[in-house]
């Protein structure tokens, strides 16, 4: 993995640990020789993460829609900034540029971006690792819901195996570097239930 795409909040969140862990992830990326790809923002966890990579001498590529640039939300000192016309273009370009994906705490946008990229993994569109940095137990309920989907037979049991989860940035990056995509025939699995 040379480039990691990180989805995270444009808010710092209520706990100081969120910002500090975002900064720690940035330093960990640089220490591992990896570049950051992210949404291009200069505020919240997004800004803290990007600035920590830059401060450590790393490279940061931002991808941001024009309407957010016009609201002056873009980070102004990135290594590279791609300005796109839509959120769809933003996600597609970030996916193309990255070798793996991480979600830090964030809101609906963070969740939407991460779930879409995880869906692409399940459908075999890519075989890149998808990690959750589960700071302060932020994603506990999200993971519980995955198990609920499996119990209710709306997702195959292997769904949770497509996720790499850790509360520590270094441990998450190490686990993602060892990740091997499980075999997941989602269509075949669904058809099996349709036939019963």
From TrEMBL:
Top-level taxon in the UniProt lineage: Bacteria
Molecular function terms, GO-annotated: AMP nucleosidase activity
GO cellular component terms listed in the entry, alphabetical order: cytosol
Keyword terms of this UniProt record: Cytokinin biosynthesis, Hydrolase
Cited Pfam families: Lysine_decarbox
GO BP term, pick one: cytokinin biosynthetic process
The keyword Zinc belongs to this UniProt entry's keyword annotation: no
EC number: 3.2.2.n1
Main enzyme class: hydrolase
Catalytic activity field: AMP + H2O = D-ribose 5-phosphate + adenine
Family: Belongs to the LOG family.
UniProt name for this protein: Cytokinin riboside 5'-monophosphate phosphoribohydrolase
Phylogenetic placement of the source organism: Bacteria, Pseudomonadati, Thermodesulfobacteriota, Desulfuromonadia, Geobacterales
């Amino acid at each position: 993995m040379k480039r990691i795409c990180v989805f995270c909040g444009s808010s710092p969140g209520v706990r100081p640990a969120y910002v500090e862990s975002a900064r720690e992830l940035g330093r960990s990326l640089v220490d591992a020789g990896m570049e950051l790809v992210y949404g291009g923002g200069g505020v919240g966890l997004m800004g803290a993460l990007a600035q920590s990579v830059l401060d450590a001498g790393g490279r940061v590529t931002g991808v941001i829609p024009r309407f957010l640039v016009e609201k002056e939300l873009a980070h102004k000192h990135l290594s590279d900034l791609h300005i796109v016309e839509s959120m769809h273009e933003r996600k597609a370009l970030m996916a193309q540029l990255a070798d793996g994906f991480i979600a830090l705490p964030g809101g609906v946008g963070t969740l939407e971006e991460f779930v879409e990229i995880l869906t692409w993994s399940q459908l075999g569109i890519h075989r890149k690792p998808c990690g959750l940095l589960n700071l302060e137990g932020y994603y506990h309920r999200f993971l519980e819901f995955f198990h609920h989907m499996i119990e209710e037979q709306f997702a195959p049991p292997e769904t949770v195996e497509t996720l790499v989860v850790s509360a520590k940035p270094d441990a998450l990056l190490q686990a993602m570097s060892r990740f091997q995509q499980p075999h997941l025939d989602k269509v075949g699995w669904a058809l099996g239930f349709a036939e019963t």
